[in-house]
């Protein structure tokens, strides 16, 4: 009820504040007998980790995950997988300046209004540091559904967009640059833009596109738990996300039915795929693809007006090491949440075996 | 698990196929002692009902809701509210032509693949007729939170958009025209456009904007059940929806942080509201607003290729009375799902009393 | 949350007051493709129905169930099964005498305290009439798991007990007498006792034993959702139930480990079965058996003190037709709840396929 | 779904095997602003800890709980409370002898059948060591509902029973002896009996009675989530429990209605309390009391037949330090689960504010 659990059969429950002892979680409902690839889990954590390149925050977080249960001799046992990620490098004093102030477009004010109390250090529970636990869950989820391929990438930064359909992109190039954009020329422009924004002490938003391939037909639980509705919720639950569209998305709203309908081939596949791989909330076997909008990071390394808990408006400058653009590091988070949804719906569909 | 329940404390569970005996539902968790306005519920049903104007389907559905429990002497008793909407005007023979065929961009094919069986009459469970039960639930939900004002309206049809911010619109005019667009001049253009599309035997998509006003601070359950994540899921669960954005939405992804941050006033309100009334998943007391994209209706009154269950591709023309544009009738459905989310989160927030 | 839904994957949500328009429910999560035996469902309803013999209430309830969805051409479709049971024979005036009074050991007083309002007619939602919907759900659940055999019977009425282990009983005789006791000699004594009690205008309690045979190994979800914990909750949720024990039960608490342990045979079965077919919350393939205690019906056809809503204590006599002993009619309810649990856990176990 | 979460609004999710790195859990839904008494939590852990007296296992478990989140400056913040209990003293080699064998009346066999794999060290997830996490959750739950008084005590060991109603007992004496029986004379007999049983290398069962006082009227969610149904499930989920009864319990099944009904006083209290403080699933303000049956511990320090995974029956003797009687140490576990239920239902009842 309190919003810290995601999933139906495969449930990830998480805890942790950015400057507490540790973050962590429990993944329950993971099938037994899966030989886990711990190197893969570590590499997924590395992708999310700050400090990987000059265009992301240089803050250091070790993000070493410790598994405490549910695994025996390298295999899942069907019992809950508990894990923690100790917070090793958090300095509380960095944040004393925000103890009594509410930063604009942060959650400081609403947490204090809702709960009457907040852990102000580094955003507490509302910090994007929380997403580290999602990446752990997602890295295991990917191993539950090894045949389903999930690739997310940065499709825009500010006004700079990839101007090709995803079918023309080489996903193997996603990790070849700091922006995680598979189109090399666009990636360079994005990188340049982020560096300029950073120099200004400013931040910029962007979008991530995610493509899911090799999806079995039949995943999805109508009417309220349509596959895309759950994917949408998963994405919208990620910090800084402002929008979600799948298939034709907002463009589809401008189209005519005669343009939009996807004609069948005789094998049940479709000639076009404006539907985005989902009909009536159920996967149809075609690629699922969707796009996620991220707002610019709210913490600026320039002066801004903040509200104090005395009701005064004062000028304050963000401190510390923050991302000028969140989307490169959000790519593995989008994939993780996608994997959690797909694995969960894969397991749910076993009901109909 | 099977996707026919929506909500956490206030739970709507629904059933019903478009051509079965009846649709219906159970609203559980409604607080006791609310004197229900049945005329209001009926009027909400009327708004969704087909046949209201020349631009929507002329199909007749009586949509008379019968309440069977949970209400005593006009008041809610705290026990579950069971209700049914008999299907009085459905003629099964209208649909015999689709018994052995799968229509493009409909759910016929995936239902048969997932379940091995489908009620082919009129789309069965995947028919938008299902949303009638949501309107009943929403009409009660609105009465749980009478102070929160929910107004949805058509903001675009095809390429025709309202070119004003919602603050400049007069919501009292929404019901004054058949399109449910509060900007009279734009409404006329939309209506004209829909009539032309209809003449062509075609359909067209559109968007609905929804504004929620007078929201208490503190509604929302981070981290996975952020208020906008639940609103997004609610919208994406409605038939034909392809996208959801709130506040700055996809535009926000192009902006810089210095442009996007909403500065505080000394009373905790904000000068701008690009955040869309939600920070970190929790309402901040400002207006919540979001936009929902609907694809064009898939049933066309022109020939299209369909797939038969023998693997043949044949030409077939849609029969019956269908909407050339779904958005006018979707307005009350968007409001209903919004009301269900807001009432649910309102009740959840009582945990912190 | 509000307690009107039972089950995890196979979910029964019910509604209805004893004197409202109708009772009903939604069974969600039923696998598709099951050819339902409607005669069987009707016969299960008949077993619960009042007026079947001289030792149960002569009240007439037609208990005709109408299925409204989720079934097409006689088969389940995987969509939710909605159903109603109209209340055809309820006379509200029968209950006007309890409008302002709270009967001892009924729920009148607590419903009014909790909800601030109650439907006083015939006990409203707290009436055992509610269990009719459980029998519908259970009758379908039994058809999901046709191989698992569920037999409940009356094992005691007042001080009269069956003095044999269940293995010595012939379950085919359960329905051969009005008490539903498979031991004919004991059944006669019980029947005689109930008739005497009835003459006195009094009521008497009893116990029901339930035996589940042919159970697959592996059903149960430790640690909190152990199979017997869910069975226990299911039983304790039935009106008038005061206790639940399985396997050795309360007797087991008096035993030594060397007496109580069930030694293995080499095929994994056990020589004794004091465990009652469940180890660590998981079925082990042996018979599951448990016993349920029912208190005597609280409505007496003799004068009792009742509390008025003015705080006065007055004498009042129960009216109408009530059961002198509830256990004979509770047998199908115990079976229904058992079937719901077993089918649900059967489906849950598919996760490990 | 997989059974490692307990509760509705106040949710405890746990993980951990007896010989893994650590046990732990996440308590979600705890209201914000509660100043936690950590000494109290530690003392509750001490009560469950092995090695406290000569009649319980001398095994050493430090059971030091570390809180990792959800608490700031000593107060709950409304975010999830993550905690771990490191396993510091587990020696895996102690258990190598059971790697290939299934002990009678243990869960070894069914875990392997269900999951295809098991952590055989010390019972793995099925070990009662898991209950340590419940005590942490319960110790916090007690602080959510400080006015509700929960007292559990040992009411029988083998054939030795307390022969007084609970009203005649002095709960302050529960902790004054090793058996946790408030009746000193009976406690001595029990202690003596357990020592004899221990000498024989045997074990013995017993019962625990729990009394809940000062309960607000109105807690409970009919029809399926009746307060006693949830208490029953909570108790039956504890290792070794075989039965649950509340109020008159199984004795009530022998009584007549005229004996069993609890007459009202004019203030809504009742003269007798055979109902056990709950009517129709809702608390009525009277004391709630119930009794829980525990089987004898299955591990014996004498030779028993075990099954090998090759299908052989061999003789094997239990090793290590085990409890000859589990009930003294189960008292704090019964209280913890009771507190979790009562706090959860207390929070749920806020819906009706």
TrEMBL record, chains A, B, C, D:
It is an enzyme of class 4 (lyase). It catalyses: 5-O-(1-carboxyvinyl)-3-phosphoshikimate = chorismate + phosphate. NADP(+) binds at residue 48. The keyword GTP-binding does not apply. Pfam families: Chorismate_synt (PF01264). One of its GO terms (molecular function) is chorismate synthase activity. Its cofactor is FMNH2. The keyword NADP applies. Keywords: Amino-acid biosynthesis, Aromatic amino acid biosynthesis, FAD, Flavoprotein, FMN, Lyase, NADP. Belongs to the chorismate synthase family. This reaction introduces a second double bond into the aromatic ring system. This is Chorismate synthase. The lineage of its organism: Bacteria, Pseudomonadati, Bacteroidota, Flavobacteriia, Flavobacteriales. The gene is aroC.
